[in-house]
């Protein structure tokens, strides 16, 4: 890893809690420089603006998260356990850090404004990875989707859409972890029953 990459990574690590504490609008480059233990001038050598820094942080977080998702889906256990681990990694790395912020909605909006392409690419990759895991399980007769009249890609899209809905419901006081686990238990029950009925 180049020294400049290491420095940029350290700045992005320091910036995350600042954005969580103050929100996007109220966070200044001076706040981030202070948290990173560098001068504003040194910060501007790495990132030309707060927007550029935020986008770089989003890109870094999504790349790291997708590596964790891939590892979870390639691991041991039945398809449901692996999907649960993959979704947990996705939420832990991309949703949970901002969800506790008083400015969570603003931070998620800033992400969609500044890094929409990154976010949508990661979402599409997540759907593809889940669909691959489901297709593999179906090919091994571990599950069947026949009774649901759905393809692995259809079901993967529904899983990701449900995760997004659960994230939005969190603003209304719902519990992200508990609601996600409930949804995944429902998924396991539906696919296990349709497999047994086949």
UniProtKB/TrEMBL annotation:
Question: Per the database record, which ranges form the HTH tetR-type domain?
Answer: 5-65
Q: Which GO terms describe its molecular function?
A: DNA binding
* The UniProt record lists the keyword ATP-binding: no
What keywords is this UniProt entry annotated with? DNA-binding, Transcription, Transcription regulation
The UniProt entry, under SUPFAM superfamilies, shows:
Homeodomain-like (SSF46689)
Work out whether the entry's keyword set contains Transcription regulation.
yes
Pfam families from the entry? TetR_N
- Residues annotated to bind DNA: 28-47
Tell me which stretches of the chain form a coiled coil: none
State the protein's name. Transcriptional regulator, TetR family
Natural source organism: Bradyrhizobium shewense
């Amino acid at each position: 890893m180049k020294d400049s990459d290491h420095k940029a990574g350290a700045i992005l690590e320091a910036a995350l809690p600042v954005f969580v504490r103050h929100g996007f609008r109220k966070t200044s480059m001076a706040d981030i420089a202070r948290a990173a233990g560098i001068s504003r001038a040194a910060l501007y050598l790495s990132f030309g603006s707060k927007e550029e820094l935020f986008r770089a942080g989003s890109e870094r977080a999504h790349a790291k998260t997708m590596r964790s998702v891939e590892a979870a889906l390639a691991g041991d256990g039945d398809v449901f356990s692996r999907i649960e681990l993959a979704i947990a990694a996705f939420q832990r790395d991309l949703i949970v850090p901002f969800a506790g912020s008083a400015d969570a909605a603003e931070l998620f909006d800033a992400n969609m404004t500044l890094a929409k392409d990154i976010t949508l690419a990661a979402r599409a990759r997540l759907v593809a990875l889940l669909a691959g895991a489901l297709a593999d399980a179906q090919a091994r007769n571990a599950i069947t989707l026949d009774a649901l009249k759905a393809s692995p890609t259809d079901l993967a899209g529904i899983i990701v859409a449900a995760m997004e809905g659960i994230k939005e419901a969190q603003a209304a006081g719902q519990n992200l972890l508990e609601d996600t686990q409930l949804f995944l238990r429902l998924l396991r029950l539906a696919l296990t029953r349709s497999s047994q009925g086949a």
